[in-house]
Amino acid sequence: MIHTRPTLSQISKALDLSISTISKSLSDSPEISISTKQKVQEFARKCNYRPNSFAASLRRGYTKNIGLIIPSVLNPFYAKVLVGIEKHLDENGYKLFTSISNESAEKESHYLRFLGSGYVDGVIICVSKETAITNKYQHINTLIAEGTPLVLFDRISNLKKCDSVIIDDYKASFKATEHLIINKKCKKPIMVSLIHQLEHGKLRANGFIDALKKHNIPTKNSIITAATIEELSSKIKLALQKNKADGIYGANDLALEQAMTIGNRLQTNKIAYTGFCNNSKTGWNTALKIINQNAEKMGKEAAKLVLERIKTTNNKEFYTRTITAEFV
């Protein structure tokens, strides 16, 4: 009996059968007699044989694996996107390899080189903040040029020859701001953001500003941006204490949560809140209406797109699917 993880060659020698016969028996080929297949399969089971999936993928020309790169696993949004992707891929017989860039272009590039070395049939990615801000996409364009199907989600870019899944950031932002103005009677709403350098952050800011203009509310000093939570906290505190803001729109999860935390500490009960949030911490305020990005649905659509791209021979038309954000 073989005591280490066996190979086809070792099983072949142990049973005095050709490697081809062993392989076909393990694949339940009708070319091999039932008795031989039973003999080989039973021996393989006792030896704890497991097929080399990478070697098999080289023979087949496909892996049935998809790579995913996300900026963070701590953000509930990305966790929900991952659930949507994994569920759809599993239903279609694919496995998912997940990597985390931690907003680093270098890490992102490293993972793309690895995934592009024959380990996956396609890649789904939300580009890192560093890549988006510097607008340097050479590492992604290299993967695309090599023929690997690629789907972007959430963060908008000017990349071509790839599909993408987004939401209408401008429209969602405009609607949330109008909620503060019309339903909450806010006269001095402000927007808080940690994503002002990213394209979707800019779209959300545009939606906020245009909603203020529509209702003849001054826009000067109405947007608070920061690079860190600490910086944002001090600015929000100043806006609430000195500028008497009466409504806060959070352009992203962390910004909204921080605003609510500061507001609770200052006991500013008259402040109205809204914004993007995928976190259960919104339970702090049962009256809070938020923008739900439908992250799981976004993940499912990204998975659908990459599988469609793998199967298609049309490499001239690429698609952007827009997921409807819910105001709940």
Q: Which percent bin holds the helix content?
A: 40-55%
Give, in spatial order, the strands making up the sheet with the most strands: 2-1-3-4-5-11
Number of domains: 3
Q: Which shape, going by the Cα principal axes?
A: elongated
Strand content: 15-25%
Q: Which CATH top level class of the largest domain fits? A: Alpha Beta
Radius of gyration: 26 Å
Q: So, CATH architecture of the largest domain?
A: 3-Layer(aba) Sandwich
Going by CATH, what is the homologous superfamily of the largest domain? Response regulator
What does this structure look like?
- The protein has 328 residues and is of the alpha/beta class.
- It has three domains: 44 residues, no CATH class; 125 residues, Rossmann fold; 124 residues, Rossmann fold (3-Layer(aba) Sandwich).
- 46% of the residues lie in helices and 16% in strands.
- It contains 13 helices and twelve strands.
- A six-stranded parallel β-sheet has the order 2-1-3-4-5-11, sandwiched between helices. A six-stranded mixed β-sheet has the order 7-6-8-9-10-12, sandwiched between helices.
- α5 links the parallel β1 and β2.
- The model has no long low-confidence stretch (mean pLDDT 91).
- This is Transcriptional regulator, LacI family.
- It holds the Pfam family Peripla_BP_1.
